[in-house]
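Quick log. Single chain, no ligands specified.
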Amino acid sequence: MSPADRAPRADPGMDAASASATPEHRLRPDLPLIVLVAALLFAGSSAHTWYSARTAAEVATGAIEDRALRQADELAHAARSLATDERAAGLDMLLDTATAGDRGARRVLLLDRDARVVADAGADARATPAASLVPPSAPGLHVARTGNRLVVWRSLGEPAGSWLRLEYAMDGVWELHARVARASLLLGLASTALGVLVLMAYLKRTWPAGRDRAGQGRSLEIESLGQALREVSSKVREQEAVLTAVTKRLEAVLQHVIDGIITLDEHGRVESANLAAAHVFQYAPEELVGLPFDRLVPDFPLAHQDERDADPAPPLASGLRLEVSALRKDGSAFPLTLGLTEMRLDGRRLLVGTVRDITEQKRLDRMKTDFIAAVSHELRTPLTAIHGSLELLAGGEVEGISGKGRELAHIAYKNSGRLTRLVNDILDFEAMEAGTMRFEVSVVELMPIVHEAIEVSRPQARQKQVELALTAAATGARVMVDPERLQRAIANLLANAIRLSPPSDRVEIAVTPVEGRLRIAVSDRGPGIPEEYRPHLFEKFVQIDGADFRYKAGAGLGLAIVRTIVERLGGTVDYTSEPDVRTTFVIELPEVARA
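-> predicted structure:
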């Protein structure tokens, strides 16, 4: 028997199994590595997609919020300037005009103190009636997101308790979010496919044993993946074109808005600026980039941060708005309103700011002040003559007038005195605001000034049958003030307290030293002051909208004059109030140490 005959015969079943286990058919040893790389690339692209979409949405949302807050402030300011009798008609026209040129502002409503809609304008106002609306409990500025809407509530000082409600559409934010997400996802998928192909091509060279036998299968595999890659690349190019168009549209909007928009880095340097911002400061846009912000706004506190500072700048309150003095490129100063919002981007702290030159607004304010002052001066001279003549008639100094005629003369005399005080208040307040009123400051004792203010107020107190009681005195205490101006401020507080006190009640005055300061407290038991009036009580022409007629007797200038005088003298004024129990106004002034 030959050796060939003695060799065991191969099993046909084993031959088939061996054939199926040849390199071109069995599982490739590099396949798990390919799957792992593909999974890592896909995970990275997914994270990039989420981050890109979120960043785009945050930037767009911040721009919309800033525009909505700015428009709410402008509408609130315009709404307060309208007369009460003309408010409804005037606001309809105002709100329609405000929303006509802004596709984001969908609806603007004005609500009175009873939450009733006074005016309603915008695209949605014509589609559906206003639902039951409940303003926020606290006055001020409130921002909320409801579905795809941004809602801004803005309280108004006049009429008291009224609200402005502004609705902004957020549809563009979500559309941008979706577009960026799709484009980033498709780009990530294309990167994943390309990475897998490169890895397979590399591994093909490292596994030569099976290259010849599996050549045909590999060619088909690569051709199939190449076709898929071409399709994905085509879709990515389409999405990139859409994303580029959206980016150009947003850039065009930013470059053509009326207000200047700038971004600052964590060290207070300008990173970007639109055309309006460059026009405000009279620089070219590229010249602004890299400038320290303190060169543009010297008084801005965060502008002095330097790259070498170890401690970062303190955080800002969201929505900070202030009026500052700024410098143009030629060094000339001008008034500027500055709005700042803080944000985080790529782990960095940035500030987004809006700037507006208010030189023209200031000029118009000066014209208004000059007009009021001129009219008031023209009124003062004839009013003085009328008041003096009526005093003679009411006092019986003119023969032939008695009985009913003297009674009418007394009424005219009383009202002419009130009108004279109102004109004097307007003149004095405008002079204080303009800085033209002179203060003769010297070191004097405080108590004689307080006693003089009490004596000046006694006729009004006797007429109301109200007792004036000095419950505490700081004898010998001295202050550096203008005695005449301080006496007027105290007398204004006493006049308000007397007017609001019930008949046969009493007003208490207490002067006490407190930690190097002298406190002058005037207390009454009148109806009190609602808490919602606290932010605006010391502003001019502010009156409490209450049923009590005593609120309406004043002109709304007394407390504004008190605050202006006290602050000019280096002091502070504030109040506490518990309705129908006690209201106390407090003036605090620095005490001068005794020699």
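The chain has 14 helices and 17 strands.
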